[in-house]
Design goal:
The chain is 22% helix and 33% strand. The protein contains four helices and twelve strands; from the N terminus they run βββααββββββββααβ. The longest helix is centred in the first third of the chain and has 16 residues, at 41-56. It starts with a strand and ends in a 7-residue tail after the last strand. The relative contact order is 0.18.
Length: 186
């Protein structure tokens, strides 16, 4: 864990939790019932994620986090079925923005051989894909916060107010900045 300042000059803690929601058998049952009630795959995916998040009551301010990013990728299926990452950013200069995230400390059994364990888990808050992301990844995209006031609302506002941020970015705010494996200059 490291202590750093975020893009707005506030102290932040950085660490690497396990990514992804760990489901109990009861949560999986709820998730599959809600997911199977939708006719298209994007709705099934959203219903599953929403059911899992709701069943844990993890949308309160104490469980909300932000993850700074400059670009993110989704995979496009290329010729011959090869998966090629497509990189999205707010601009060619890749300005800083944040994903809305959910964190919780969870005790469960992920693998029978491990037995019960407690871990920090984290997930990005999903929403419908916008006009730029949908042709590559139609199911969903992460909620993106681009303004300081959005970050403050996500981290501090009552849940009904914070949930209003669960929307895709308007068309034209994201662009594809490159395709292919990441090759940073540093």
């Amino acid at each position: 864990m490291t202590d750093e300042n975020d893009k707005f000059g506030r102290r932040s803690d950085t660490y690497e939790p396990r990514v992804g929601i760990v489901c109990t058998a009861e949560e999986r049952s709820i998730c599959f019932r809600r997911a199977s009630s939708a006719s298209n795959p994007a709705d099934r995916h959203q219903n599953c994620v929403r059911a899992n998040i709701a069943s844990r009551n993890t949308l309160g301010p104490t469980n909300r986090r932000v993850v700074p990013f400059t670009s993110f990728s989704e995979y496009e299926t290329g010729p011959g079925g090869k998966k090629v990452p497509v990189w999205f950013a707010l601009g060619e200069d890749r300005p800083l923005a944040c994903f809305a995230g959910i964190w919780t400390n969870w005790t469960s059994v992920r693998k029978a051989t491990e037995g019960e364990f407690t871990c920090d888990i984290f997930a990005f808050l999903p929403t419908e894909a916008n006009a730029e992301v949908a042709p590559i990844h139609p199911k969903a995209m992460p909620v993106i916060l681009t303004e300081e006031n959005e970050v403050d609302v996500w981290l501090n506002a009552p849940t009904p107010v914070a949930k209003e941020l669960q929307r895709p970015l308007p068309g034209g705010m994201l662009r594809i900045v490159t395709k292919g494996e990441r090759a940073d200059k540093d």
